[in-house]
Specification:
Elements lengths: L1 H11 L1 E14 L15 E13 L2 E15 L6 H6 L2 E16 L12 E14 L2 E4 L2 E4 L20 E14 L4 E12 L14 H8 L1 H7 L2 H5 L19 E14 L7 H9 L5
Antiparallel strand pairs: 1-2, 1-10, 2-3, 3-4, 4-5, 5-8, 6-7, 8-9, 9-10
Helix pairs in contact: 3-4
C-alpha cells in the first residue's frame, strides 16, 4: 500500500512555468474609502511563475509580479476627504512563495483531472515607491518625509520594501497534457501603512518646512491647494490617515502555463510514441 501511494505521488510530480496577465488595485487611505476598492483606479499587472506540482491536491509556486496602484482624494464623495487633497501612484514589484490546494484535485496527464478550483496562500516581499504630482513634476514621497519622518522626535523613514501575505482563489483547466489556462484573484495584506505614503498623522507645516524642506511641507498638507489659499497649518498629531497600520493590494488575472512532464516520472514520451503507432520494444 505504501509503495502504491509513493508511486502515485511520483507520477503526479512535475514542474510547470507560466505567465499571468491581469489587473491590480489597492485599498487604503486614498482609495476613496479605506475599507473599499475604487475600481476606477484599476491598472495593469503582469507576472511569471514556476509551479511544482507535488501531487494532485498540492502545489508550490514561486512568482514574480509587477503591478501598479494609484489613489486620489478627488475620487471621494466625501467633501472632508476631497479637501485633504492627497494623491499618489506607485509601481509594485512582488516576489512570492505560495502553496496551492486543488479541490478536488488536478492532473492534466491523460486529462484525468483536467479542471480544478484552488485556494492559495503564502508570503511575499513587495517593493513600492509612492509618488505625487506637484507643480508639473512627480516627486518620490518617501525621501521627503511628508509626515515628519527623519526629523528629531519623529519616526524614522519607512522602508520601501514590505512583507505581504498573499491569499486568494482561482481555477485551472488543462487544454491538453502540456498546456493549462486559469483565472485567479488574490489579495495581499501588506505589513505597512505606507503604500500610499499616508500613515496616520500630520506634522505641522513649519516643522516640515524647517526639517524636511519646502516640497515636503507642500505635499504633507495639500488642503491649501484645494481651497486656493496659503498652506493650511494643523498641529502635529492631527489625524491624516485612518491609523489602520496596513494597506492592501490586489492582483487578478488570466494565466497560461506549460507542463514539463517529459521527465521520466510520468512516462509521457512513451505514451506519445504509443499514440503515434511507434513500437517501443
Amino acid at each position: 500500500m505504501l509503495f502504491l501511494m509513493n508511486s502515485l505521488m511520483l507520477q503526479a510530480q512535475y514542474f510547470e512555468a507560466g505567465v499571468l496577465i491581469g489587473a491590480s488595485n489597492y485599498m487604503g487611505d486614498l482609495s476613496n474609502n479605506s475599507s473599499k476598492v475604487y475600481f476606477g483606479e484599476t491598472k495593469g499587472a503582469l507576472g511569471v511563475f514556476g509551479r511544482y506540482n507535488i501531487f494532485e491536491m498540492l502545489s508550490l509556486r514561486a512568482s514574480f509580479n509587477y503591478g501598479a496602484i494609484k489613489g486620489t482624494d478627488a475620487n471621494s464623495d466625501n467633501e472632508s476627504i476631497r479637501r485633504r487633497n492627497l494623491s499618489f501612484k506607485s509601481n509594485l514589484y512582488e516576489f512570492g512563495i505560495t502553496a496551492e490546494v486543488n479541490l478536488p484535485g488536478y492532473q492534466p496527464y491523460a486529462l484525468s483531472r483536467p479542471f480544478s478550483p484552488f485556494l492559495f496562500g503564502g508570503i511575499a516581499f513587495t517593493s513600492f515607491n509612492p509618488k505625487a504630482y506637484y507643480n508639473g513634476e512627480w516627486y518620490e514621497l518617501q525621501p521627503l518625509g511628508t509626515e515628519g519622518q527623519g526629523i528629531p522626535n519623529f519616526e524614522s523613514p519607512y522602508s520601501k520594501l514590505a512583507v505581504s501575505v498573499p491569499f486568494g482563489i482561482g481555477f485551472k483547466y488543462a487544454i491538453n497534457d502540456t498546456w493549462n489556462v486559469g483565472l485567479e484573484c488574490g489579495a495581499r495584506f501588506a505589513l505597512t501603512d505606507y503604500l500610499d505614503d499616508v500613515g496616520g498623522i500630520y506634522a505641522d507645516y513649519n516643522t516640515l518646512l524647517g526639517g524636511n524642506g519646502e516640497i515636503a511641507a507642500a505635499l504633507g498638507n495639500r488642503t491649501g491647494e484645494y481651497l486656493g489659499t496659503e498652506p493650511v497649518n494643523v498641529p502635529t498629531g492631527t489625524k491624516r490617515g485612518d491609523n489602520k497600520n496596513s494597506d492592501w493590494y490586489f492582483i487578478a488575472g488570466v494565466t497560461v502555463s506549460y507542463n514539463f512532464m517529459d521527465n521520466g516520472l510520468v512516462g509521457s514520451r512513451g505514451r506519445s510514441k504509443r499514440k503515434s503507432g511507434c513500437r517501443t520494444d
